[in-house]
Write a structure and sequence with these properties.
The complex is a heterotrimer. Chain A has helices at about 1-10, 10-20, 25-60, 75-85, 100-115, 135-155, 160-190, 195-200, 215-230, 260-280, 300-320, 325-355, 355-380, and strands spanning about 205, 210. Chain A is mainly alpha-helical. Chain A has a domain at about 1-15 and about 95-350. Chain C has 3 helices and no strands. The longest helix of chain C is centred in the C-terminal third of the chain and has 31 residues, at about 60-90. Classes of the chains: A mainly alpha, B mainly alpha, C mainly alpha. The interface between B and C is large, with 90 and 74 residues.
Chain lengths: ~400, ~180, ~100
């Protein structure tokens, strides 16, 4: 058994060993730098794998093969993509605002990497155990909106500006349901620290874990958080700001070469960090799904869950059509916000009702009733009558 | 440590003051708004150095995530983003500058007179989020409710003030709706 | 630990520059930016005094600063709404042109 607990903590032990080679006053700095190097190495690596998985996955959903030229089954495609984007000419429009144009991808990537600092990847494996870790993550996520605006405005291009405005409006609208659906978890756990949230989901009743997703308010919160997360990272079906068929490429039309690769990297890493947060808040973080599987290392569980979330996002991208801007905003303000507020109420009632089947029944009835009522109210204005055809005579 | 001040503090203070000066002196309005964002970030770092974690993160979330974007949207909606049509500085700019300099001199004199440069250092306070939450719900519940009402009223008012007036429907749109 | 006077002088500097922006620039939005800077400088003062006070666990300064952040955000929203409404009416944000109440 000691082998498995060592395997679980192998990265922590490695970090301590390497830091031990340095003098005492330098050790905290070295330990932190090692953690940063691990994050900077691991997550762009996952990004490279994801680009291949996404293109092949989308290809299969759309009944075609994905990239299959570079390397066996196309696995080395990210290498080819990387070389291409590094060696492409960096074109900056003449009337573009040079300083802001240059800084926009930098701000995006810095903000996104900062968000990984409070993500607990395994047992004892978080870079910064902040007391307000969740607040830090959402604050940094709010800063990415500004970089998108900088990118769109500095290009001096109508399409870029339009795409940037749409993206910022969408991100601001969906930030409120995102925050409210995570406040439920904070309320029940009693702490904003991500480490404590994961530890609070660590127990098992029999074989089943105490993950928050297995409670009614947790399931509703998880659904709301996932939808809002998709919208925050401009991921399909909310990818109108970068809709290729509409706005050329939206706010990064005027970017080429390495800066475009940085935007791409920033967007995908944002998706990973917010998927990681969904896992931390609702799916038990690095915890095992069954009590007898506890010997598998905690970081392995986290990455398996992350892979599952990424596969789910790719699946959604290939399947659902794009939402229009007004449909998007209606959905955020008229459906998700009331549901998130009601979820808060239900979670509060859950907390104070004590164990038993009564609170399950009440919670499920309120949530499903609200879902049906809100859905009906939103659909009221649209009269879906018989289809009528108009011919061009 | 330079003259009793840590390097981190000096860099953060320099960043904040540079952002403020840039917001004062730049002519392009969007650049001013972006340097305002840099100032907000510098101030958040100063809060973190003062062990006020919650205030620092709330500063980033509210100011950079909301107020800066609001300012930028307002600049775009009032067409201020291009070349300015009028001069940047008012006609009595010297009086304004003199007043600001006088205020700064007064404040600095007051600070230097009251506090010796090396003040006693308090131990790090435990301003955990839990204690803030408990304080908000017990001692400060009345200000909390009043601020909630204030925010609601202010935002409804802002929306009503900035809303375009309802247009009179003309006959063309009515005819189109009939079909 | 950085002395209290250093934080107060930084806050005074930001306040003075914010005041200069509000008094000298012609664009209405820049005046609002100056006002936000002044409020931020006051917040820094509050947090600095809270940290160096004899009883920081009473959280008075921190609470004051948090409420100040909330109120400043609301005030920025209303002020910018006013500027937008005025611009819609008279197509300018120049404060020196806003000399009449009529029209």
């Amino acid at each position: 058994m000691s082998f498995f607990s060592d395997l679980d903590q192998v990265f922590v032990l490695l970090q301590h060993w390497i830091a031990g080679l340095f003098p005492v006053w330098l050790q905290p700095v070295v330990a932190t730098i090692l953690g940063v190097i691990a994050i900077v190495a691991a997550f762009p690596g996952i990004f490279a794998v994801t680009t291949v998985l996404e293109r092949k996955g989308l290809g299969r959903i759309q009944n075609r093969l994905g990239p299959n030229r570079v390397g066996p089954l196309g696995i080395l495609q990210p290498v080819a993509d990387g070389i291409k984007s590094l060696t492409k000419e960096d074109i900056v429009p003449l009337s573009a605002d040079a300083v802001v144009h240059f800084l926009a991808p930098v701000v995006l990537v810095v903000a996104v990497f900062l968000g990984f600092a409070v993500l607990p990847i395994g047992r004892n494996m978080v870079l910064a155990d902040l007391d307000g870790g969740l607040l830090f993550f959402f604050a940094i996520g709010a800063s990415t909106e500004l970089s998108i605006f900088m990118a769109g405005w500095s290009s001096r291009n109508k399409y870029s500006l339009l795409g940037a405005m749409r993206a910022v409006a969408q991100m601001i609208s969906y930030e409120v349901p995102l925050l409210l659906s995570s406040v439920v978890v904070v309320m029940i756990t009693g702490s904003l620290s991500t480490v404590k949230i994961v530890e609070a989901q660590g127990g098992f009743t029999g074989v089943l874990p105490h993950w928050y997703v297995f409670t009614p308010w947790g399931f509703a919160g998880f659904a709301l958080f996932t939808v809002a997360a998709l919208a925050e990272t401009n991921r399909s079906p909310f990818d109108l700001p970068e809709g290729e068929s509409e706005l050329v490429a939206g706010y990064f039309t005027e970017y080429s070469g390495f800066k475009f690769a940085l935007f791409f990297l920033g967007e995908y890493l944002g998706m990973f960090s917010i998927a990681g947060f969904a896992i931390t808040l609702f799916l038990g973080g690095w915890g095992a799904p069954f009590s007898f599987l506890g010997f598998v290392p905690s970081w392995a569980w986290f990455f398996l869950k992350l892979l599952g979330a990424i596969a789910f996002f790719i699946w959604l991208r290939g399947t659902l059509p794009r939402l229009r801007q007004d449909q998007l905003m209606n959905f955020a303000w008229k459906f998700m916000l009331p549901m998130a507020l009601l979820n808060l109420l239900v979670a509060g009632a859950w907390r104070f009702m004590g164990e038993g089947w009564l609170r399950w029944v009440i919670a499920i009835v309120i949530l499903i009733g609200a879902y049906v009522l809100l859905g009906r109210t939103l659909m009221r204005k649209q009269k879906l009558g018989a289809r009528s055809y108009r011919y061009a005579d | 440590m330079i003259g009793g001040l840590s390097i981190v503090f000096l860099m953060t203070a320099l960043l904040t003051v540079a952002g403020t000066l840039a917001a004062a002196l730049l002519r392009n309005l969007v650049h001013c708004a972006l340097s305002l964002t840099v100032t907000f970030a510098g101030l958040a770092l100063l809060y973190l150095q003062l062990d006020a974690q919650f205030a620092g993160f709330a500063q980033i979330l509210v100011y950079i995530g909301a107020v800066a974007i609001l300012v930028v949207f307002a600049i775009l909606l009032t067409r201020g983003a291009g070349i300015p049509e009028y001069r940047s500085y008012g006609s009595n700019w010297f009086a304004g500058l003199a007043i600001a300099a006088a205020v700064f001199a007064l404040l600095t004199w007051a600070v230097m007179k009251s506090f010796p440069a090396t003040a006693a250092v308090a131990s790090s306070p435990a301003a955990t989020v839990q204690s803030i939450g408990a304080a908000l719900m017990s001692t400060y519940v009345l200000p909390l409710e009043i601020v909630a009402i204030l925010l609601t009223v202010a935002l409804i008012g802002a929306v009503i003030v900035a809303m375009p007036e309802a247009k009179v429907s003309n006959s063309l749109t009515e005819k189109a709706g009939e079909r | 630990m950085t002395p209290l006077a250093a934080f107060l002088i930084v806050a005074a500097l930001v306040f003075a520059i914010g005041l200069a922006i509000a008094l000298t620039r012609r664009n209405g939005i820049l005046v609002l930016i100056g006002i936000e800077l002044m409020l931020n400088a006051a917040n820094l003062n509050l947090i600095a005094f809270w940290r160096f006070a004899p009883h920081p666990e009473a959280l008075i300064g921190m609470m004051f600063a948090i409420f100040s952040i909330a109120v400043a955000a609301a005030e920025a929203a209303v002020g910018l709404g006013l500027i937008i409404a005025y611009h819609r009416h008279s197509k300018t944000t120049d404060l020196e042109a806003m000399t009449r109440m009529k029209g």
